[in-house]
Automatic annotation (TrEMBL):
<feature type="domain" description="Protein YjdM C-terminal">
    <location>
        <begin position="49"/>
        <end position="117"/>
    </location>
</feature>
<dbReference type="InterPro" id="IPR013988">
    <property type="entry name" value="YjdM_C"/>
</dbReference>
<dbReference type="InterPro" id="IPR013987">
    <property type="entry name" value="YjdM_N"/>
</dbReference>
<feature type="domain" description="Protein YjdM N-terminal">
    <location>
        <begin position="5"/>
        <end position="33"/>
    </location>
</feature>
<dbReference type="InterPro" id="IPR004624">
    <property type="entry name" value="YjdM"/>
</dbReference>
<comment type="similarity">
    <text>Belongs to the YjdM family.</text>
</comment>
<dbReference type="Pfam" id="PF03831">
    <property type="entry name" value="YjdM"/>
</dbReference>
<dbReference type="Pfam" id="PF08274">
    <property type="entry name" value="Zn_Ribbon_YjdM"/>
</dbReference>
<protein>
    <submittedName>
        <fullName>Zinc ribbon domain-containing protein YjdM</fullName>
    </submittedName>
</protein>
Amino acid sequence: MMENLPPCPKCSCEYTYEMNSLVVCPECAHEWDPESGAESEGAVAERVVKDAVGNVLQDGDTVVVVKTLKVKGSPTGIKAGTKVRNIRLIDGVDGHDIDCKVEGFGAMQLKSGVVKKG
């Protein structure tokens, strides 16, 4: 019965499950009907992505990394204070909701909780 259920529109949790005609998120308890209200609910309650200090982020913003991040295959990682320009907000996997290019590392996804609007 697990037929590619959508991730939670509120917290992006991928472990959603069906309950009658609704889809339920086990992490934030959000319930929604994927059949009827996906577009109308999305228009009313558009997803808001906030940075580490609570500022609302938008596509095209410039952000600053607030803590040093480890990167697979890199001996140094991304240092705190690194500027990332022209971000794009996405429904990523495992909480990664920013798609961007980090200078010296290339394209990657970051979590909004490790950046600050700058």
